[in-house]
Specification:
Blueprint lengths: L4 E4 L14 E4 L12 E3 L11 E3 L15 H13 L7 E4 L5 H12 L3 E6 L2 H10 L4 E4 L5 H8 L3 E6 L3 H7 L3 E9 L15 H5 L13 H5 L3 E4 L9 H8 L1
Parallel strand pairs: 3-4, 5-6, 5-8, 6-7, 8-9, 9-10
Antiparallel strand pairs: 1-2, 2-4
């Protein structure tokens, strides 16, 4: 099972840059109380890329290595710029926008000069996305007017960053610009879209056998779209460089 975690150095080789008691972040090959790891970065300016664990950069909190400077932040970066090739001026929509992955997507996309439409559940989350993260429009999928709101906010998408799948993904496929890139990052166990907020919890309890599959997939053909999946683990050789840049 792959994992990411913070560890304490209990023994260090002679001549190395680490000392006993130092904290490191990485992905050990197994779940264990102790394991041997190979260091690939030990400061904010290091550029070595030949291993799988890194010491916490100076000026960074330990928790950052489990979030924006860990696989969460790296996932969004590679998904947006290596897979989607997001450009300034394009319109991006991201589902699950208030979650750990989605909110970083919003911030990186805005920083890159994109117009960002965010999908989240509930007016408070949507208000937070607009107020704190500066997204251009946040759309509440629990609202009775969600379909109309989404169509108005994102009539043509250049990039769709999917974190939930299901019916919300299916709806997004009706709003594609020519040459759109649909990026598959995650999914919800029972991703359902409903017409009214009162039905959300009831619909979420539906059995998988009662859920419909994607019906608008042919829109990918009409839009000359690209739909791609990726895993952040495909980019391990660049973790060190990106962690240094991000910090």
């Amino acid at each position: 099972m792959r994992s990411l975690g913070l560890s304490v150095v209990v023994e260090a080789g002679a001549g190395g840059s680490l000392q006993v008691g130092d904290l490191v972040s990485g992905r050990p090959r197994q779940w264990a109380r102790r394991c041997v790891v190979k260091l690939f970065v030990h400061s904010c300016t290091a550029d070595r890329q030949d291993g799988r664990s890194k010491a916490i950069p100076q000026g960074c909190d330990a928790v950052d290595l489990l979030g924006p400077l860990g696989t969460t932040g790296l996932t969004e970066y590679f998904g947006l710029f290596d897979v989607a090739h997001l450009k300034a001026g394009e319109t991006l929509d991201v589902s699950g926008a208030a979650g750990a992955t989605g909110n970083v997507v919003c911030q990186l996309a805005k920083r890159a000069g994109a117009r960002v439409v965010a999908i989240a559940g509930g007016p408070e989350k949507c208000a937070w996305l607009e107020r704190e993260l500066g997204v251009d429009k946040a759309v509440d999928y629990k609202s009775a007017s969600f379909r109309a709101d989404f169509a108005a906010a994102a009539p043509k998408l250049d990039v769709y960053f999917d974190n939930v799948g299901g019916e919300i993904l299916d709806l997004a496929l009706t709003q594609l610009n020519r040459g759109v890139r649909v990026i598959l990052c995650g999914t919800a166990p029972r991703s359902v879209m409903v017409e009214g907020a009162s039905d959300v919890m009831q619909q979420a309890q539906l059995q998988d056998s009662k859920l419909t599959g994607i019906t608008n997939y042919f829109q990918l053909v009409m839009a000359r779209a690209i739909m791609k999946r990726f895993l952040v683990f495909d980019y391990e050789s660049r973790y060190a460089y990106m962690a240094a840049q991000g910090s």
